[in-house]
Queue: 2 jobs
Job 1
Amino acid sequence: MNHLYRITLVEAKLFAREPTPWLAAVLLPTIVLVAIGMLFPPHAADPGPGGQRYIDLFVPSMVVMTLATLGVNTLPGRLARYRERGVLRRMSTTPASPGALLVAQLAINAVVAVAALALLVGVGHVAFGIPLPKDPLGFAAAFALGMSSLFAVGLLVAAIAPTSGAASAMFLPLFAAVMFLGGVYLPRWLLPEFLVRIGDFTPPGVQSMLDAWSGTPPQVLPLAVMGVITLVAGWLAARSFRWE
Amino acid sequence: MRTGDGVADAARMETVIDVQNVTKTYGGRRVVDDVSLEIREGEIFALLGPNGAGKTTLVETIAGLRAPDSGRIRVLGLDPRRDRDALRQQLGIQLQESALPDNLRVWEALDLYASFYANPADPRKLLASLGLEGVRGSRFAKLSGGQKQRLSIALALVGNPRIAVLDELSTGLDPQARRDTWELIEGARDRGVTVLLVTHLMEEAERLADRIALFDAGRLVALDTPEGIVRRIDAEQRVRFRPSAPFDVSILTDLADVRGVTRSGSTITVAGGGNLVLAVTAALARNGVVANDLRIEQADLDDAFIALTGRRLAS
């Protein structure tokens, strides 16, 4: 336990020293939200689909940007690099387990995801009057399951990729797909219906977050799918993960 | 200093690493081929051999990082794979390649690794003794090759291990740093740490090791003290000198230990065996000749390796 605590502290420092994840996962979604808020003045009398303002509909997609950056880039990329550099192997020769390093990374990325979410929601609320999630519990569940499913998929890629270069090459299309289906590149109401449906059931399950935000309890099936993806991908990753 | 008494002491010491008939095969190639050896408490034991001889694979099985295909290994009475956790507390390992995150600072690495062990060494003292104080706040990526290497050695010793496994410890070190590192290893041995050294450098093994296991193509070729290994090959000695006065070479060629005498300019070279130096200088003295600039050339480990395997140790 003490090992895990010490490793987490050190890994948190290392995370803090790298500017890219902060920029891409924490600051960028909020910056994009602010930019959109300035392009579509929030008080414009031009309601988007469903009577909601465009900007309100955008928030979950910005959450997807955070989760995609951390889940299929920062977290597994770092683990793949650690493995390639022999960091995990080096640690496995000590009384500490390299598994503790993996747990520490999961925890740090989860905390950063929540921090990015808080920043996004806070700025959106204060600057553009975006309401807080109307179903906070439902949103928490959708966020937690969405994050864990995406992290598990990222870990699975890190587990099966032979080198960190190969991992990066696999993350690229995965990242693009998650961002696209999550409505980051194009608003989801402009996507064809079948892509929207696919996006409901692929990590991190943006529709569930949107539902919870606007006060509709998220549907059980998409949430259950995220849970199943977390378990299956996580189990496969744990089975196939190589420490060296 | 290695002395006869030291070897006798060592013989009474407890065996801390016991390797019996260990074999490891990769892709049909026997990387470690039926190796048996016993390493005793408090000695510096060197696995010496050319690159690719299977030394690293053997220490990795000793450290429990790999399972042998067959054979039996006990380290401090423990099975390196089954009793991994218990062994980790008492075994410090320095692996060949550098293995820390780029942005980790030197003191952070040592503090972190110290926290893994029940009775760690003082990280500050260790940094000082390894000459790393000046870079304690530097990031790993900014260190020179030699500094990375010394940090790696520090991490192997920070847990106050009973056994330290050091793989190619002086790689990338300049001659001064290399000698400093050797002193550090001797210091660890003097504190009672058993050191298992993997090296392809003859000089390193000769200087540091109490006993050497000579490795070639996965097989143990010889296991003895450095002197013992050299003695195995009955190599010719050569004595070279400039005589103070002309003399009749028959006073030397008549000696039983002398096999040949050659002259090149003012220098005489005498080849032979046994106690050649004493025989030659005594014969010269009897005839009123002084041997100036006397040099003795003896076989070393490199010669021994060539004699035992038919090839050179280092390129």
Note: The first helix of chain A runs from residue 2 to 16.
Job 2
Amino acid sequence: MSAPARSPQVLDDKISGGIGASPQRPDGTLKVRGEFAYASDLWHENMVWGATLRSPHPHAGIRSIGIAKALAYPGVHAVLTHADVPGENAYGLKHQDTPVLAEDRVRYQGEPVALVAADHPEIARQALKLIEVDYEVWEPVTDMERAAHDETLPRLHENGNVVRHQRIVKGDPDARADVVVSGVYELGMQDQAFLGPEAGLAVPAEDGGVDLYLATQWLHVDQKQTAHALGLPVEKVRLTLSGVGGAFGGREDLSMQVHSCMLALHLGRPVKMSYNREESFFGHVHRHPARMYYEHGATKDGDLVYVKARMYFDGGAYASKTPVVVGNGTTLSVGPYNVPNAHIEGWGVYSNNPTCGAMRGLGAVQPTYAYESQMDKLATALGMDPAELRIRNAMSEGSTTVTGQVVDFPAPVAELVRRVRDMPLPPPNTDELGFPGGAANTTHGEGVVRGIGYGVTIKNIAYAEGLDDYSTARVRLQVIGGEPTALVHTAAAEVGQGLVTVQQQIARSELGVERITLHTSDTSVGDAGSSSASRQTYLTGGAVRNACLAVAERVYALAAERFGVEATNLSGGKVVAADGAVVADLAELLGEDVIEETREYHHRKTYPLDPETGQGNAHVQYGFSAHRAVVDVDTELGLVKVVQLDCAQDVGKAINPDAVLGQIHGGSAQGLGLAVMEEIQVTDGVVRNPSFTDYLIPTILDMPPMRVDILERPDPHAPYGVRGVGEPPTISATPAVANAIRAATGLELPRVPIKPEHLTGT
Amino acid sequence: MDAEITLRVDGADQPVTVDTRTTVLDALRERLGNTSPKKGCDHGQCGACTVLVDGRRVLSCLMLAVAADGAEVTTAAGLANGDLHPVQRAFIDHDGFQCGYCTPGQICSAVGVLEESDGELSRAEVAERMSGNLCRCGAYPGIVAAVEQAAGEQR
């Protein structure tokens, strides 16, 4: 069958600007007109609509599933259950523990149980109500700490309720200190809340395979898992990226991929699935809630002596990225500070709460909130300025991390803190609209107090603990219409971050060619890895560079053959020698020739952690950012207004400075959201607020003015010296805001998000 | 119950027979093939579906198509013929988006804001008036700057 209407689209290939410039996005014109086709916009002749029946119970046995009534409903074409899964009814990013459709039990509210395909989405949803599932409701496992230790609780999976336990021991775990502070910190469940819902269109193919057009973060891992569940060889399951309406980690696990393909293959006709907002809250994983016990010891002069921590991460019903959260959480547990002695333990557990997995700042958001709260508490105990305490203990190039890894690239942590500390402070508010409560006019300033707080983070960039992390790029150079043109083809997912722009910039700079066409991302080229872990400019950028360099080598060989001159550079459409002399015009040299090369980029090897001591070179690179928040708090009503949120971040090399700024703005907004408003509220395993009325995300009114200072200290091990950008600002914003509210109110506030009742004590 | 209505969408009359419960958003997206307005929540909470109805901004997921019979409906796709509307240009100039899903709604909303305002727009007022349009990518600083630029050009 043919490709769907409205996808793929041709992005702009007539923009100028190489590395270090901020050219216009090639998808910009389409996006401002609403003509960029997102997965939910796809349409195919003869298509039907799929819908998913989900469990209303967080924990229950399934005695039977009756589909006859639903199947008989007019307009319904198919009703499928676990019995119809053609391959293995199990998938998962790290552990294959997640059923495509539930068989004899459900482990969370919202778990998929059956599928319907019908002529209209409303008919499909009506038919879902006619499916008769006989549940035996069980008591849910809901407390993460009990799940880790209480052997009397029901075992939710074969191997028990602990997904991963990791211990890290450094130096003397019994070290003593002059000043000791401790605390127990909790973080609620945050949602990615991307605006474009999960959606995809599956089109059955004549070879018995299927073509799936969808929004995702990682085409190849979806392909592999989907093919396995469909019982098809991977080459018969072909994926093409459509427009992605935000991701932030929430699209790394499968949602409708297998379901839509099952229905399409069953019916032999195209099937579209598109979740609504409420279903989206159940259709993807969330950020792990955490409970963290911390103790910091320091000398009376303020030098850190030790950190002890026990941290629990609630992974919910299935493993997803829980093993990585425990790995990141423990290895980053003491923050960007020099800590000679440490004893850290982390547990990631199964429960009957919603499944948690990837979200921007994976596994670093939780400990950063805890250790930055501790740093402020320590500063108070020492009578020191909180910024000064951080600067005094800041790690730097050559520092040894808690896992014994020596940092062999710039780590300007102290400078980042100095830079945000030294930015001018905003004046007291005088604007009627500027107080907490805004246009609701709830105060004229009485009861309003101001506070300043800092947050600093360290985040590992790219994949860790021994994974071979790589991306692939294919670059084709040829003359089209008299103009040398390069076609860049990768499977990397543009999710809004601007990777399409960056790929064009790199190809322009490396090939000296203005016109760069982007092939739609699909699985007909090698794996690019995920648009996650702040890794795509590093890895896919590196792969595009490598492919361009290979193409350039062949151009030089051609020049040597024709002119007997050694060329070393491509610039401005010319082939150039080392002395700057133009050897040939690129278009003339190429003539009818087509030069195509495919290359991978692999980052430096990393290593697993020692299972007993947690020592090891687990990470390839770290990103660092520091925030300073200024808040006004109405102590009578419990309302918070973030007045200013400034950030300094080291990005190694800003390939696209405007896009870097966008990442810092956006990440900061999400970190602010976690600090004061964002939480999926779960009671006994049941989600209470699956809507944008009740799950609040920052609006334009909540977004404070930001001063942003971007440092560029190149990492000598990374292409162009780049350092991952996307995650750190999400992480350090949260504790900066929380610490500012504490500074304003004097309250302990051990949990985020901080809600009005925490501030008023009501 | 079905009703025969005519929507004038982006300058062209579009007669269509709809179930009377159909929203303007569904009529546009599913019946008339205009997917420029996005369905982010379908409950009037996110603003991604914002269009202009007779020049005023409207959450198209909360307006029934029969209520727009005979009205001029403008989506981000129809704001300008060929070239871009100054607000669209400003969103590109100031990087007022990333994933772009909220953008058609943001832009229609911004055009509505400029129409509503009779004079200077302070930053605070821009934010107040644009606060019904969520952007999860957090491109808000760029959106404020874009609306300010467009307001300046309008003056």
Note: Chain A is about 25% helix and 25% strand.
